[in-house]
Design brief:
The chain has 207 residues and is α+β, with helices and mostly antiparallel strands. The protein has 4 helices and 15 strands. It binds manganese (II) ion (MN).
C-alpha cells in the first residue's frame, strides 16, 4: 500500500481485511506539540455539543460530545444525525496538514469527539457512511486520557484487536477495515479524565 511516505515510523497491523497503522506519540514526535496543551486548547476552543442520534427508530443523547469542522459543502451524517460543517480551526488545520504529509493523502473533514469521563463511550459500529467511499482512510488522533479502542470482525466476532490509545497517538484505519470490522470505545468504571479524539476523513462530493 502506498499510503505512507518514507518518514513514517509507526507499525502496521494487518489481518483478514483489517488494515491499521499505529504511531504512538505522533503529536510529540512529528509535530513537536505538547499533547496536554493541545488537549486543553481544543477542549476550550472547539464548539462541543451533545448530539442526538437515532438508533432503531429511537432518539438518544450520545454518550460523548462532538463537533465537526470541514471544507465548505462537505456534508456528513451518521445515525440519522447531520453534521453542520464549521470552518477549520487553525490548530485542526495544522494537524490536518501534517497528517496529509505523513500519510500522503487528502482530508477535507474532521469529526471531533470528547469523552468526558469513563461513563462516555461509543458502541460497536463501522464508519461506513456512503459519503466516505468504499475503502476510506480515517486518521484518528487521541489526546488526553488513554482509552481502550477495540475492533472486532463483523462475521467472526471472536476475532478481536485492542489498542490502548494514549495522548498524542495516531491510529489510521484504511483499506477494507470499515467494511469487514467494527470498532468501539468501552465505558469504564475507572476514575479517568477526558479524552479528545480527532478523526480526519475525506468526504466524497455528491454527484
Ligand atoms: Mn467510528
Amino acid at each position: 500500500m502506498d499510503l505512507l511516505n518514507q518518514h513514517a515510523v509507526g507499525s502496521w497491523h494487518t489481518h483478514d481485511n483489517l488494515s491499521l497503522y499505529w504511531h504512538p506519540d505522533y503529536i510529540q514526535s512529528h509535530m513537536h506539540l505538547d499533547p496536554n496543551t493541545t488537549y486543553t486548547q481544543l477542549l476550550e476552543q472547539l464548539t462541543w455539543r451533545q448530539g442526538e442520534v437515532t438508533v432503531y427508530g429511537k432518539k438518544h443523547l450520545e454518550p460523548r460530545l462532538s463537533t465537526y469542522y470541514a471544507d465548505p459543502h462537505t456534508n456528513h451524517s451518521y445515525s440519522g444525525k447531520r453534521l453542520e460543517a464549521q470552518p477549520w480551526h487553525p490548530l485542526l488545520l495544522i494537524i490536518k496538514n501534517t497528517l496529509e504529509a505523513t500519510l500522503d493523502t487528502h482530508f477535507n473533514a474532521v469529526l471531533c469527539n470528547y469523552y468526558r469521563n469513563g461513563n462516555d463511550g461509543m458502541g460497536w459500529h463501522s464508519d461506513d457512511e456512503p459519503e466516505l467511499g468504499a475503502t476510506p482512510t480515517i486518521a484518528s488522533v487521541s489526546l488526553g486520557s488513554p482509552r481502550q479502542f477495540n475492533l472486532r470482525n463483523k462475521q467472526d466476532k471472536t476475532q478481536k484487536m485492542a489498542f490502548n490509545l494514549g495522548g498524542g497517538d495516531l491510529l489510521v484505519m484504511t483499506g477494507k477495515t470499515q467494511r469487514y470490522w467494527q470498532h468501539n470505545i468501552t465505558k469504564t468504571t475507572q476514575a479517568i479524565e477526558g479524552r479528545i479524539n480527532l478523526t480526519f476523513r475525506h468526504i466524497q462530493p455528491r454527484i
